[in-house]
């Protein structure tokens, strides 16, 4: 049975988080299709990873049999995280926009799993082609043609890091204007916000079914 790697990064719990509610919809549909499948779940907000340090970074450039005992110990977490990613048949990431970019906890995860010559830096990486759904929620509107289009550093960064860097097959689902119901200044955008949220839930449910069908036929 296929394995799903599910990462949440929002600092807000449950339905208070747009990204968590949408990733939950995907996972619910996925588990309905694969009740006996494996789900590897990391809540990077509740259990943040340590930032990559020099010892762990250097260990990633050394052959396993040439690492010092200190490097072996420092690399252990990177090995675990990279192996989880390599094991995954599908990756699901909740990536809300914080201060125009991704949560620092997600960046820490990326720094650990991007290992040159293994998961990255080769024409065919150990993670190439893995279907990856990124729920990139944001409180305002940052799409093409909007006044703040140039402030968007979530999908453009993750498209490069996940797609070009790790070789993942990335699909973005973008619920926008999520603050409309809580911000009086955005009251006239509530209808658009609700429509964007509904479409996000529909899109991830459809994507979960599509991928379930693909793996059932494999």
UniProtKB/TrEMBL annotation:
Segments forming domain Flavodoxin-like fold: 4-163
InterPro entries: Flavodoxin_fold (IPR003680), Flavoprotein-like_sf (IPR029039), FMN-dep_NADH:Q_OxRdtase_AzoR1 (IPR050104), NADH:quinone_OxRdtase_FMN_depd (IPR023048)
Cofactor binding summary note: Binds 1 FMN per subunit.
Pfam family, one: Flavodoxin_2
EC code(s) of this entry: 1.6.5.-, 1.7.1.17
Cell membrane is among the record's keywords: no
Coiled coil (residue ranges): none
Keywords: Flavoprotein, FMN, NAD, Oxidoreductase
Assigned protein family: Belongs to the azoreductase type 1 family.
Reported function: Also exhibits azoreductase activity. Catalyzes the reductive cleavage of the azo bond in aromatic azo compounds to the corresponding amines.
Protein name stated in the entry: FMN dependent NADH:quinone oxidoreductase
Gene name for this UniProt entry: azoR
């Amino acid at each position: 049975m296929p394995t799903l790697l599910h990462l949440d990064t929002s600092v807000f719990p449950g339905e208070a988080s747009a990204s968590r509610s949408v990733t939950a919809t995907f996972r619910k549909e996925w588990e309905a299709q694969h009740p006996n499948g494996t789900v590897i779940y990391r809540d990077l907000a509740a259990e943040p990873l340590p930032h990559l340090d020099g010892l762990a970074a250097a260990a990633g450039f050394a052959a396993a049999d040439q690492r010092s005992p200190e490097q072996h110990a420092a690399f252990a977490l990177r090995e675990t995280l990279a192996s989880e990613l390599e094991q995954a048949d599908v990756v699901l990431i909740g990536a809300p926009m914080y201060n125009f970019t991704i949560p620092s906890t997600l960046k820490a995860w990326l720094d650990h799993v991007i290992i040159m010559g293994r998961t990255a830096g080769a024409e065919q990486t150990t993670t190439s082609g893995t279907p990856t759904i990124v729920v990139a929620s944001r409180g305002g509107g940052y799409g093409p043609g909007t006044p703040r289009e140039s402030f968007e550093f979530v999908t453009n960064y993750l498209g490069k890091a996940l797609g070009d860097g790790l070789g993942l097959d990335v699909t973005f689902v973008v619920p926008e204007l999520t603050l409309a119901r809580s911000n009086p200044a955005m009251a006239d955008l509530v209808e658009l916000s609700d429509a964007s949220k509904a479409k996000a839930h529909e899109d991830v449910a459809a994507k979960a079914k599509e991928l379930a069908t693909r793996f059932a036929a494999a």
